[in-house]
Amino acid sequence: MDKKISSKIPYILIVVLGIAIAGMLFYILPYRYRLSQTITFEESQEPLKNPLTGFAPPAENVEECEGNRLVYIGLTWADWEPRPGVYDIQGLEERFHLEKWKEENKHAVLRFLCDIPGDDTHMDIPEWLYAKTRDGAYYDTEYGQGYSPDYGNSYFLERHGEALKALADYCNEDYFVSYVELGSLGHWGEWHTNTEEGVPGLPGADVCWEYVLDYSDNFHNARLLMRRNYVMAAEGGLGVYNDMTGHKEDTEEWLGWLKEGGSFETRGEALELVPIENFWEKAPVGGEFTSEYTMEEMLDGRLSETLELLERSHMTFLGPKCPDRELLESSGAESVEERLGYRFYISELRTQYVFGANELKVHMKWNNTGLAPLYWDWPVTMYVYDKDGNLQYWEGLDISLSKLMPGGEIETDAKIPFTDLFRKGYQIGIGITDPQEKGSLKLAMESEEKEGVQIIYTYQNE
Predict the structure, then answer these.
(1) Can you tell me the distance from the alpha carbon of 214 to that of 162, in angstroms, rounded to the nearest whole number?
(2) E strands within 233-356?
(3) Helices and strands per DSSP (H, E), number in the chain
(4) Would you give the DSSP letter of residue 362?
(5) How many angstroms separate the first and last alpha carbons of the chain?
(6) Which of 167, 200, 339, 384 sits most deeply, having the most CB atoms within 10 A of its CB?
(7) Residue 394 bridge partners (DSSP)
(8) Are 438 and 105 in contact (CB under 8 A)?
(9) Are 385 and 392 in contact (CB under 8 A)?
(10) In angstroms, rounded to a whole number, what is the distance separating the alpha carbons of residues 149 and 168?
(11) Rounded CA gap, 316 and 374, in Å?
(12) CB atoms near residue 385 (< 10 Å)
């Protein structure tokens, strides 16, 4: 019996020792080095000036555009095609400073225009096109003076398609033009004319469809928006824009169309307005501030009303009528800008060391406190640096930012191959870039920045 008992002692010791070692490896080691952590973050309240959202002042005004990430290009047909089939790309680039804005990683809102009311008699279509058609109407109304073409003219429509294709081919060369507002028809390209003062109305719905197809068939990199939620917008999944932003009654009417639909009279078949109340989850909302009030009024005495209308509209951008350079840093302008579009941050980061795989699991919770999602799925990358700040590892995260809705949350998981180098200290950073890796998106978080990467967590082995 004594021999039997003594023979088992080594095995018992081995088992106990194994359990102790396992306990140290699986429990003591991670906590000794604080490798398993849960860190929570508060949203930063600083203005972000992120791409694809915010104010979009006129691109031709360099001074006004300097503090913004979007610019507005209002291009008339007369300027784009001065002679039949001759498209003035050089004039477009020089007038709107496109090379400068592209170098600064800005993005553009584009509207093609055939009729801009002004102070003097003029036309915004090419002279050669007028000579071929001559069936529009000069007008002098409370809107101003100008020339309203006959949009139903078959030659006019044919040449419009060719002009739009040429413009789209130019824009499709890169991602600079990110939003295209379907203009072309009506005063300011807003799809209405002043029929009360004798200006001919728009052509019927069948003809209007042709204009929409000129846009949807040709612009491939930009999101398209219409002035109202016409049936074309509903069926095509387009966004909308409100050029009376800040005006309560007009915006209430516009929101009513989005919710309940309606009808818009033309010279032919009416344009039907189709309810698309939650369309903003997949398509953007833009527009510009109304001219009914001064900008100071909307950003001060009417600020609470302005913000309420923006929130109900789920707006992403405003321009070309938006706060000028003198008002851009006012508290009212900053309140508006920080609400426009998306606003992402990580509310929680959790690390867990897995000894068997010698890896660190990283779990993150992503939140959006803005008014809209990001309408592109820009790649998101996690970067890991050693304690000396040298990049040692990176991994693309499986997250679709276009699905991160206001008030929503998305969770991501990643793994870091762990080494003794990281045990001495490491940093986790997040980088979000456009598909061409030129512009970057910033999270609403207090963090240091390293070449476009935000360092959101630092581990130090003290």
Answers:
(1) 8
(2) 239-245, 262-264, 271-273, 285-289, 317-318, 344-354
(3) 15, 21
(4) E
(5) 53
(6) 167
(7) 383
(8) yes
(9) yes
(10) 22
(11) 9
(12) 21
Q: Which residue has tokens 């694809």? A: 52
Strands of the sheet with 107-113, listed across from one edge: 70-76, 107-113, 177-181, 223-226, 239-245, 285-289
Residue 447, C-beta contacts closer than 8 angstroms, at least 6 positions apart: 454, 455, 456
Tens place of pLDDT per residue across the chain (462 aa): 343 434 455 656 555 455 445 445 444 455 445 778 999 999 998 889 999 999 999 999 999 999 899 999 999 999 999 999 999 999 999 999 999 999 999 999 999 999 999 999 999 999 999 999 999 999 999 999 999 999 999 999 999 999 999 999 999 999 999 999 999 999 999 999 999 999 999 999 999 999 999 999 999 999 999 999 999 999 999 999 999 999 999 999 999 999 999 999 999 999 999 999 899 999 999 999 999 999 999 999 999 999 999 999 999 999 999 999 999 989 999 999 999 999 999 999 999 999 888 999 999 999 999 999 999 999 999 999 999 999 999 999 999 999 999 999 999 999 999 888 888 899 999 999 988 777 789 999 999 999 889 999 999 876
Cα 130–chain centre separation? 37
Q: Show the DSSP H helices in 285-345 as ranges.
A: 295-299, 303-313, 331-337
3-state secondary structure of 116: coil
Burial 36-68 (b: 16+ CB within 10 A, else e): eeeeebebeeebbebbbbbbbbbbbbeebbebb
How buried is residue 246: exposed, middle or buried, by Cβ count under 10 Å (0-12/13-18/19+)? buried
Q: Taking Cα atoms as reference points, which of 69, 125, 126, 72 lies closest to residue 96?
A: 72
